[in-house]
Every structure is written in structure tokens, then in C-alpha cells.
Amino acid sequence: MSREELQPGTRALHAGLAPVADGNPFLAGPTFAAPFHLSGEGDPSGYARYEHPTSQAYEAALAVLEGGPALAFASGMAATSAVLLSLLTPGDTVVVPSDAYPGVRDIAEKFLGPRGIEVRLVPTDDRAIRAALPGASLVWVESPSNPALDVLDLTALAAEVHAAGARLVVDNTLATPYLQRPLEQGADLVMASGTKALTGHSDVIIGHVAGRDAETLAPIREWRGLHGAIAGPMETWLAHRSLATLGVRVERQQANAQALRDLLAERIDLVHDVRWPRLGGVLGFTLPSAAHAERFLAACGLVVNATSFGGVHASAERRGRWGTDDVAPGWIRFSCGIEDTVDLVADVARALDACG
Ligand SMILES: Cc1ncc(COP(=O)(O)O)c(C=O)c1O
């Protein structure tokens, strides 16, 4: 059976592991080294700022999951910067979401605009993006978007972006390649913060970029080496180890999200605008005010009040506290963990009663 025929959970379990041979560990430990013995001509394999074996094993796993070659980065934002800053030059035009993770918007406005790149800020909406395409060379989207959880038709969008002569980059952080493979849908590049559901234990900051082929990735690889944005051996090893449970984690998080969505839908006395795009364990809802949201978070016993999402422990936050997103004051971004569903639902039901 070829690896490509496997279901995504099995694929994640085996991805990037060493070949089967007596004495081989399933997953080799991290290799802590800066330079490597190198005779003859210079080669990136001689210095860990360019590449190192632990990162290469993780990247081999990512390539299997994403369906194209991948590069690991020190964070999702390092990956984002590498794409934007290596591919765009003065005179180019980039389309960037006005309502998605604010980091990409900040890089575009603070670092691309002043360098002569036209930045078009556009909401996560198929029609709005289509209208912004003429003259653009790069289109960055996030689907589902964070924090509003809007979803795009990536296949249709990729065709339109290419017809306009541009390239499509998809931030796939929320869904992970377990649930959505943008390269298969026509995207040129996919970026993700592995800090979230991909690694899922809230213990590592990491990111990656995957592309349709090595040529598409080449300038991004060069940027990573020169700017020193590679992820280290400990992070890449932890991330790779975490991939083995990707399938079971995401399945449980989704089951919990569905059960919570059902609970929230019944509480129309208190809860509005319940959103769950069915692409992961993150959902959102609005309580009547910021004070209700704070009381709700304080009353939860199993839900950590923390930013980020996708971890094995349920977490939530009143997103408006950052002042970076256009959300209602009582908007809660809720990330389901892998708790037994009955416990999580009971905890949230109690907290809703307490905050009303
Ligand atoms: C959708 C999305 N993209 C990118 C990032 C940036 O990732 P990192 O924090 O790993 O740099 C985040 C972080 O919250 C995110 O939510």
C-alpha cells in the first residue's frame, strides 16, 4: 500500500520516520549541533542555520502531510515573514486579509508598504478578494480565518488568482493538513503556525511553509538560511513527536466542538452568533458584554483563559482584549481540548449559568 493511499491519521503517525531497520529508533532523538563535519566544497548541510537532521526529519513528515516539500521555521510569524519578504519586491501588489491573524497585516503595513509594495487589505470573502485581484502578484488568505472563523472556497479562488497572474498563499493553521490540504486545492504555498493544533501540546513555538515544488520554495529557503529563522532541534523534534497523535487529537477536538455548538445553540437567551466551520476544534460565540465574557471565563473550571488555540487542554479568551480584531466586546474564541466530551460540556454549561 502506498503512503499516499493511507488515511490522514495513519499518514501523520508514520510521516518522516526513519526507515525500518534493526536497531533504528522509531524517531531519532534531536541532534544538538551547530557545525557538522564537512570536507570539500561548502554545503548547507555543514551548518545548522541552513539545515539540520532533526529539522529535515520533521520537514519530511510535513511534506507527506501537506503534499509538497516543506521548510520548518522558528515560528508561524518567521514563516510568514519569509514568504512575504522573499517573494515581494518594490512595485509589487499584495492582497492581505483585513480580518485574519493580525500579524500578517502588521508585517504588510509596517514593512512592505514603506518598501514600495502596494498592500490591499481585504476581508475574508470570496467576492471581495476577487475584486482586489487585478495587478496583484501575491494573495494571502486564511481559511478558516482567525478569530471570525470565515471560510473561503479555496479551489475556486486558486483558479481565479492564477487567471489573474498571481500566486495564492493559504494560512492553514486552524484546519491543519489533517483536515485541509490547500496545495491539493491549487494553492502555491501553504503556511501554518505549528504552535497550534498541528503540534497541539502548547509547549512549542514553531511554523512551516510548504510549496508545490522545490523551485517555488527556493527563495524562501534562501531567506531562512540568511535570516537565521530555522527552528532548532528541540522544537522540531517535539513537533515531529506530536504529529503521531494529530488524528486522534483533532477527532476528539472536533467531537467536543460539535457538542459545544449544540449546547450553545440551545442557549439563545445568552449566546449569539455561534460559529463553528467544522474544520477543527475552534468555535466562537458572543456573550452580551465584555463583563459577561469575563465572568464566563472565570467560572470555567476546565477551560484555561489563554490566547492561542488547538492544544489538548481546552482554552478560551475574550478576543477583544487585544484590541487588534474587529470583534464584539463579548466575543469568545473557544478552543476545545481532548477532554471527555461530557465533562467539557458540563463545565461550559455551568459557566454559562454562572455568567448570565
Ligand atoms: C492563524 C495564525 N497564523 C499565524 C500565527 C502566528 O504563529 P506563531 O505564533 O507561531 O508565530 C498565528 C498565531 O496565533 C495564527 O493564529
CATH class type of the largest domain = Alpha Beta
**Largest beta sheet, briefly?**
7 strands, mixed
Distance between the termini: 55 Å
Shape: globular
CATH structural architecture of the largest domain: 3-Layer(aba) Sandwich
Number of strands: 12
Secondary structure: helix percent: 25-40%
Category from helices, strands and their pairing: alpha/beta
Please give the radius of gyration in angstroms.
21 Å
The distinct bound ligands, ions and cofactors come out as: pyridoxal-5'-phosphate
Number of domains: 2
CATH topology (fold) name of the largest domain: Aspartate Aminotransferase, domain 2
Detailed description of the structure:
This protein is α/β, with parallel strands linked by helices and 356 residues long. The protein has 2 domains: 3-243, Type I PLP-dependent aspartate aminotransferase-like (Major domain) (Aspartate Aminotransferase, domain 2, 3-Layer(aba) Sandwich); 247-355, Alpha-Beta Complex (Aspartate Aminotransferase, domain 1), CATH 3.90.1150.10. Helices cover 38% and strands 15% of the residues. The protein is built from 12 helices and 12 strands. It has helices at 8-14, 53-66, 76-87, 102-112, 126-131, 154-163, 176-179, 214-227, 233-243, 246-266, 290-299, 341-355, and strands spanning 70-73, 93-97, 118-122, 138-142, 167-171, 189-193, 207-211, 272-275, 282-286, 304-305, 315-318, 331-335. The strands form 2 sheets. A 7-stranded mixed sheet has the order 1-7-6-5-4-2-3. Strands 8-9-12-11-10 form a 5-stranded mixed sheet, covered by helices on one side. The longest helix has 21 residues, at 246-266. The radius of gyration is 21 Å and the shape is globular. The model has no long low-confidence stretch (mean pLDDT 96). The structure holds pyridoxal-5'-phosphate. The site of pyridoxal-5'-phosphate has 14 residues, from helix 3.
